[in-house]
Amino acid sequence: MLRNSELGGTPALEKALAGHELTYKDGLELMNEENLFLLGSAADNIRRSIKGDTVTFVASYYLNYTNVCAASCPLCAFYRTNGAQDAFTLTTEQIISRARIAIKQLGTTELHIVGGFHPKLGIDYYENMIRAIKREFPDVVIKALTPAEIFFISRVTKNSTREVLQRLKAAGLDALPGGGAEIFAPETRDIIVRGKCSGKEWLDTARQAHEIGLKSNCTMLFGHVEKPEHIVDHVLKIRDLQKKTRGFTTFIPLKFSLENTELEQKGLIKAESAATYDLRVIAVSRLLLANVLDNLSVYWVALGKKLAQVALSFGGNDLVGTAFSEEIFKAAGKNSGTSIQELTSLIKEIKREPAQRDTFFNIMRRFN
Fold it and tell me: Which structural domains are found in the chain, ordered by start?
């Protein structure tokens, strides 16, 4: 365990290791900390004190019900306009067919269901989808529709956000994914997002979900045009909401994938962020969220498996999941294939203890 005296007098790191809550100013200091390995070591110590040496993951299947999207965000390689040749919207029967494969053949315990902002789908589409899955597979956890999607559905169907959430919960919705948060600061968000809810609207939708008993993940997209202050601002807004609702299960920093996006095509971003920056963001997130949000998930699909292993020593305690059939990052050129066996091996290689969890971070089984 690091002692304060070994930190070279870095005030923010000393505060973090002493268990004190960090401020915005502290966060900026950490984002500019010259010694990356010292930063990582501090984050790793906090991780160990909160979560021990267990690294978790869930057996999840990613089901994208449509790629039709009214938002057309420059950061996204997945969306298509309505009527495009390769646009798709799955029927309830097609969704159930995929769910059968996920659950019966792959051992999935969680269906992670997200899609584009389809301008023509009514709320009954989503209710029927959820009810049909629950009717055939009552024990599977349906984690579906990000706060951004919920906000869009409420506007398209002219229902309040709370009514949409309540109706979907009544249909069998168990939890929300954390996507669509991107980055909250408007000066950055306005460059990478088009036609999507604001950061404030995302947070308000998540708050309402928590208030009716729906847990959710939360994310942050980094490695595009943001500045250090935007990273700190985003994480602290997540922390503030978590203090009020305790509804977030984990925080997932998502590395931006450049390939096939409008941001690449227009030359606004020339290359993806460096691994050293990725590790810095993960470590700082852990330190800012300490004692408020215990789980920090490393999304291996975006980082790559080897860098994900390193990130588990920079504050991460979870590998998100198997992400069977993940399509969104695949559209941006990322290989998204893995298995329970491979995730277990990746964890054992770094001398940590692998465990399969459920959606709500209850341990289901451990691996020797």
Answer: 42-358 (3.20.20.70)
